[in-house]
Amino acid sequence: DVKVTQSSRYLVKRTGEKVFLECVQDMDHENMFWYRQDPGLGLRLIYFSYDVKMKEKGDIPEGYSVSREKKERFSLILESASTNQTSMYLCASSPPGLPGSEAFFGQGTRLTVV
Amino acid sequence: AQSVTQLDSQVPVFEEAPVELRCNYSSSVSVYLFWYVQYPNQGLQLLLKYLSGSTLVKGINGFEAEFNKSQTSFHLRKPSVHISDTAEYFCAVSDQPNDYKLSFGAGTTVTVRA
Questions:
Q1: B10 close to A (CB below 8 A)
Q2: Which domains does chain A have, with CATH numbers?
Q3: What is the distance between the alpha carbons of residues B74 and B65, in angstroms, rounded to a whole number?
């Protein structure tokens, strides 16, 4: 069974902290994504990666960075957490090849910044 | 980037009644279209997708969707819903045929009542 695992389901962090959200997939997928989910806004793409050490900005990259040192792991970093980054964060992966491939999602990390 | 509009944010429906969730997208160029479902406290999973061919697409759990190019729509339907269909549903579109990124709508929450 395919799996995308996010390291935490719930996190509470203080304003100004550096926050790491970890995501691991066991499907040998090249593509990995970080989304942010907010009520009424759906999912918005923060960053994505097509391969190890490669990253590209999505629609809302400000305040975030990413790291992909190994194929199976894609980390989202909040350099200095702020209250407006309180949200649900979803990681996803998809296989290479033809576009239109299914994206597989983790269960999400609900981050609260206080 | 694509703009995806889900016309209904909340859809209450009685068990065994039909349901239709509406989705429109902004571009008339070739696109790939998807419906994902998010059950409570879970990540997203693929319901169905349209890549090419027949405009009527069948998915899992009895759902189907119809692609209408002239109206740039991809509405989701189920003839008879169950309590277990209570979830949030997201329409998504890929920007270009060779683009792996998805643009999501804001989501439609379906609540099935007995």
A1: no
A2: 4-113 (2.60.40.10)
A3: 6
Give the closest of A31, A41, A92 to B106, CB-based. Answer: A41
The pLDDT of B5-29, averaged and rounded, is: 93
- The distance of Cα A45 from the centroid of its chain, to the nearest Å, equals 9
pLDDT in tens, A16-74: 999 999 999 999 999 999 999 999 899 999 999 989 989 999 999 999 999 999 999 99
Count the domains in chain B.
1
A3, A25, A32, A43, best to mutate vs chain B, most B CBs in 10 Å = A43
CB of B62 within 8 A of CB of A63?
Answer: no
Q: Which of residues 11-50 of B touch A (CB under 8 A)?
A: 32, 36, 41-46, 49
Closest alpha carbon to A67 in A80, A52, A81: A52
Any idea what the CATH number is for the domain that residue B92 is in?
2.60.40.10
Cα–Cα distance measured from residue A95 to residue B55, given in angstroms and rounded to the nearest whole number: 25
- Across the interface, of B42, B51, B90, the residue whose CB is closest to A42 is B90
CA distance B99 to B106: 21
Whether B21 has a pLDDT exceeding 70, the answer reads yes
Q: B10-24, B54-68, B95-109: which range is least confident on average?
A: B95-109
